[in-house]
Amino acid sequence: MSSIKSDKQTSVNVNNVNQDHIHSLNDSQDSTVQPSPTYSSCLVENAVQPKILKHISTPPSQRQSKSTLKFDIYSKRSSESSEISSLLNNGNKMRNRLNLTFNKMLKNRNLIVDMLAIFFGIGTWVGINGTFIQLPLLVEIAPEGWSLPSYLSVMVQFGNLGPLIYTLMHNKSIKSDTILIYGLLILGTISALLTAFFYSETAIIFGEEHSIALFVLTFLTAINACSSSVLFMPYMGRFKEIYLVTYFIGEGLSGLLPSVVALIQGIGITECILTNGTTSEGENIYEKYTPPPSFDTKVFFIFIFTMCTASCVGFFLLDRLKLAKKEYANVRVIHGNNYVYDETETKRTSSRNIDTTDNDDNDHQSNLTSKQYIFMLFLIGAICFFANGVFNSIQSYSCLPYGSDAYHLSATLSVIANPVACFLAIFLGRTSFLIKLL
């Protein structure tokens, strides 16, 4: 009897233990409390086994969905690869077009003559542009102060007397414009060299101190710059028309190169530095301090002198070399810069250089009438009035509240804007809607 009771008691204890085991499993699933160590191995086995069974007994519908997902991924990859290949093909087409364009540009031309024309064009406005770019440093030492740009703008306008005198004497006593070009280039070169050493010299006029040396040298430099429009460009008319473009590139570089050098030069930012002394009231004393730029104005004008010298050498070689004379158009020089062109050769060269699309557009455009021509002259005069006369004279006053650093950047970047705009005009389309509306 005792053994039977003990067996019953052990069975009851086993049942209790199993029930406790089941309750503990249920409690572990409902709560976040960690299971007891005695049953951790059982829980791990119960947790792993369903995943293995589920992996083994995957239904066919899920297998099909996975296969379709893989197909979608492959299709996306193939579409992306096709897009990349299309982009590469478009890039190859653009590269071929650029190569054809450059081949057309390099055809029937001499690169040495192109370089000489560029140096010749640099000597046009490099002196005036260099002087106005240095104004943020010159206003600090000149007695005129921030009104110095107004005085220099007046000197530049006096430089227009050169083209006026040439126009009046053109049909009377001037036989060769080449001699005048040599004289103007030498005048601009000597003015740049003298400016490097005498830009700070002053004199007393009507009881006030003025930068007389800078005024006179700016006037002489302006005669060279202003006369380039009536002498330098007509001289390039004896060459093929393709070299006129490179001349204009050089004229744009006459503003770009001094601007880049001025950005490298920089300008000192004025600071207030605490001194060792104090006032009678015990307050600290501060003094104004402006650090010097990377190199002074004298070095900058020597660079301008070097560019002017290179322009003189470029024009001398352009006028004397036989390979340059071989690039002349079919012209005959009559008097000064008056040429007589062979009409048949001109038509033949223009037909080779102009595309058929441009010819179609030109056929639909009518010639300018006298009223339209006068309007265009008035428009160009108004643009030159503001760009070369008004803006340069008031630029210092507009930048005065922002300090010398802002004036330095505005004076430099404004000169860079002109050659950049001319460079973009080569690639952008040109229209004449104003002419059609008139």
Please, could you describe this protein's structure?
The protein has a two-stranded antiparallel ribbon with strand order 1-2. A two-stranded antiparallel sheet has the order 3-4. Strands 5-6 form a two-stranded antiparallel sheet. The chain is built from 18 helices and 6 strands. The chain has helices spanning 2-30, 40-56, 60-106, 111-122, 126-133, 135-138, 148-158, 161-169, 177-198, 212-235, 242-265, 297-320, 322-325, 343-353, 356-364, 370-399, 404-427, 433-437, and strands spanning 203-205, 208-210, 271-278, 284-289, 331-335, 338-341. It has a domain at 109-268 and 296-345 and 370-427: Growth Hormone, Chain: A, CATH 1.20.1250. The termini are far apart. With 438 residues, the protein is mainly alpha-helical. The longest helix has 47 residues, at 60-106. Helix 5 (126-133) packs parallel to helix 11 (242-265), helix 5 packs antiparallel against helix 12 (297-320) and helix 8 (161-169) packs across helix 10.
